[in-house]
Design brief:
By secondary structure, the protein is an alpha+beta fold. Helix content is about 30%, strand content about 25%.
């Protein structure tokens, strides 16, 4: 799917952005930083009490820059290769090439590394010296650091966070080992090429830090450290790729979004640490005063999660396990506000207690609780993983959320329905409103899912759940045939971001195409143009649903003003303000492709498809879609859909599948290794009624 000869997954520039926030990030699920930044962060390690809690800054030995005297005479490039998860800086003269590679190891998550390689390109025998600028200062505003004895040639430091999130809460200790960095490295006269490798190991125990460092040293000795990292990335891309025959900027945007999101997820198999969620700007950000202090919002559950779920349900499960581990905090939040059950915090860190610095959001933006449960619902209907619910705490969470919604509702005698009063909807321009349509529809969906899963597990369904789901008010204007954002909303009032349009997707709230169109038109013209980046993706999905492809594209094009050059880092708002490396916006953009262009919808019994590709996209290939344990590849053109089961594991056994076409009812068994094809029409994938392939 070439568009010229430029690789859409490799971003190269002859200079760095002037704003250091826009530098490429190198992260895995456990540790992360921006290149040339003096601090790094560890997943789940926060310092500070409640509203002040933020990612703990750890001094970064990875902050090294390569220079040589007379650099202005050299060709210089900076490259982020998303295929290999590696950032490189190259200096080239007629006589030699010097390459600096930086990466956070994807599968050995406690390791970051960099290498310097000098290679002669001419028949000279002069020594070649490269200088390494290392502005490393061993201090932190968040940890009391102590130096320990060197270990296997590495320096060693450890320190405990200074202030717990809540009294008696966790105060993790961070242990770090790193290879000392010399001021210069020299290729001697008789040498053609030489590499110097530098290793950093970070963990929350001395034992794990030393074990990881030792493993890294052994890999360096075997010449396999970087190659094992690139193999892990190759496997990631093999299992999750979206490519299309279309415009280069669109392809680059997709690769960039996938790279930054995939960087943040736990590796396949046992990650070896409890995953603590993803903040809007990821591990490369989150110090005090940036990226909302590294807190976890609905951004994770609503905007990032669905993309990860479609490709890597095992990693998606880790997101849900974070919410289960912080359930005690959510129970405390509800009790503190006088309600039953669990109220998830608007901003979450290590404990699940509310850590938003401004009380109004934690008190009123309660849709977060339904957002969390919708992620559990999508996971359940994609995987049928009952163990998470029966044995790993999922059912307790579902039950607690249903309890919360019932206790949050009040009966209106006048309207003969339940109200949810005094909330802030996703549109944060408005607060203390009654019956936010998004919040109430989400509460209804939470209760319906809780009842469905109880029935699946043969647990009696509380009558209250059924009654509240049936009778909660979901505002609708029957005259204008649209959904008011809340009670008393006047058409034309400005809106901060996607809100009512989320009823159509991801909520899939029942409505006619006419109402869907009216909602889109009503809110498109009043939504803040420079608002959060994920907004226009959701308008695009709505228009694609209605087969208004050009209108969808005009919305999606607005997202490109949030993508910065040269490394495709997203900013939250198009004026550059807000969170940077804005994974939320990337998640929304990917959903516009993954759920918009394909028409994928996760329902109780099927994975639906109904493609709508823009005119300039001739072919769309989505590799690695996971459904009931199978891996599927979709190839979509204007004329044809081709589906292939690429993997159907036996242990545990994947459920046999079939494709069904909506209009004709035609059925196609899906068997591993075989492709089926049919004209581009709507249909769905479902469990085959037969138990054999």
């Amino acid at each position: 799917m070439a568009d010229g000869r430029e690789d859409p997954a490799v971003f190269t520039s002859t200079s760095l952005p002037s704003d250091p926030r826009l530098l490429a990030t190198v992260t895995n699920a456990y540790i992360g930083t921006r290149v040339y930044r003096d601090i790094l962060h560890v997943n789940g390690v926060y310092n500070g009490a409640v509203g002040d809690t933020h990612r703990a800054d750890i001094p970064s030995p990875l902050n090294v820059k390569m220079t040589v005297p007379g650099m202005d005479r050299l060709a210089e490039t900076f490259t982020l290769n998303t295929r290999t998860g590696t950032f490189s800086h190259v200096l080239q003269s007629a006589d030699y090439t010097a390459t600096h590679q930086i990466y956070a190891h994807h599968s050995l998550v406690h390791l970051m590394a960099f290498s310097i390689t000098i290679r002669r390109s001419a028949c000279t025998s002069q020594p070649i010296t490269v200088q390494l600028q290392t502005p490393f200062v061993l201090k932190s505003q968040d940890l009391d650091l102590y130096q320990g004895p060197d270990f296997q040639g590495a320096h060693y430091v450890y320190g405990k966070t200074r202030v717990p999130e809540v009294e008696g809460g966790p105060q993790p200790t961070v242990h770090m080992l790193w290879t000392p960095v010399p001021q210069v490295v020299t290729l001697c006269g008789e040498e053609q090429e030489r590499s110097w490798e530098f290793l950093i190991a970070v963990a929350e125990s001395e034992e794990e830090a030393k074990r990881s460092f030792g493993e890294g040293l052994a890999s360096i000795a075997a010449g396999s450290l970087h190659s094992s990292h690139t193999r892990a990335w190759a496997a990631l891309w093999q299992g999750s790729c979206v490519d299309l025959d279309g415009p280069l900027p669109l392809r680059q945007a997709i690769y960039g979004c996938l790279y930054y999101l995939l960087s943040a997820i736990p590796p396949q198999g046992n990650p070896g640490f409890p995953f603590q969620g993803i903040s809007p700007g990821g591990l490369s950000n989150g110090t005090r005063g940036e990226d909302y202090w590294g807190h976890v919002f609905w951004d994770q559950d609503t905007w990032m999660f669905p993309n990860i779920l479609l490709f890597y349900p095992e990693a998606a499960r880790a997101f849900l396990e974070y919410r289960i581990r912080t359930l005690e905090g959510a129970l405390h939040n509800a009790q503190e506000q006088g309600y039953k059950g669990a109220k998830f915090p608007w901003e979450s860190a290590a404990t699940g207690r509310e850590v938003c610095p401004e009380d109004i959001y934690g008190a009123q933006e309660i849709h977060i609780t339904g957002d969390v449960l919708m992620a559990f619902e999508q996971y359940y209907y994609t995987t049928q993983d009952q163990k998470l619910f029966r044995e790993a705490g999922g059912w307790k969470l579902v039950h607690a959320v249903a309890q919360y919604w019932c206790s949050r509702m009040v009966w209106s005698e006048e309207e003969q329905c339940y109200h949810i009063r005094g909330v802030m909807p996703p549109d944060e321009y408005h607060y203390q409103v009654d019956n936010s349509v998004y919040t109430n529809a989400l509460a209804q969906r939470s209760l319906s899912f809780a009842a469905d899963i109880a029935r699946d597990f043969l647990i009696p369904v509380p009558e209250e759940w059924v009654e509240c789901a049936k009778k909660v008010k979901v505002p609708f204007d029957a005259d204008k045939k649209y959904h008011p954002e809340y009670d008393g909303y006047s058409p034309g009032e400005p809106v901060k971001q996607a809100d009512v349009v989320l009823l159509g997707f991801p909520l899939m709230h029942p409505m006619s195409p006419e109402v869907r169109r009216n909602d889109l038109e009503m809110y498109e013209r009043v939504t803040e143009l420079n608002g959060p980046a994920m907004t226009w993706s959701m308008f695009a999905v709505g228009w694609l649903e209605l087969k208004e492809v050009q209108r969808a594209q005009s919305q999606l094009k607005k997202c490109f003003s949030n993508i910065t050059e040269p490394f495709k880092i997203w900013v939250e708002n198009s004026d550059g303000s807000g969170a940077v490396n804005f994974l939320t916006g990337m998640g929304g953009f990917l959903q516009a492709v993954l759920f918009g262009y394909t028409g994928f919808r996760i329902t109780k019994t099927s994975l639906r498809f109904n493609p709508s590709c823009p005119d300039d996209v001739n072919k769309l290939k989505v590799t690695g879609i996971s459904y009931f344990g199978n891996k599927l590849k979709f190839t979509i053109t204007k004329e044809e859909i081709r589906i292939k089961v690429t993997e159907s594991p036996l242990d545990p056994p994947a459920l046999p599948l079939e494709a069904v076409l909506e209009e004709s009812g035609q059925r196609f068994p899906l068997c591993e290794g075989r492709s089926i094809s049919f004209p581009t029409v709507a249909g769905w994938i479902q469990r085959s009624p037969t138990e054999a392939h």
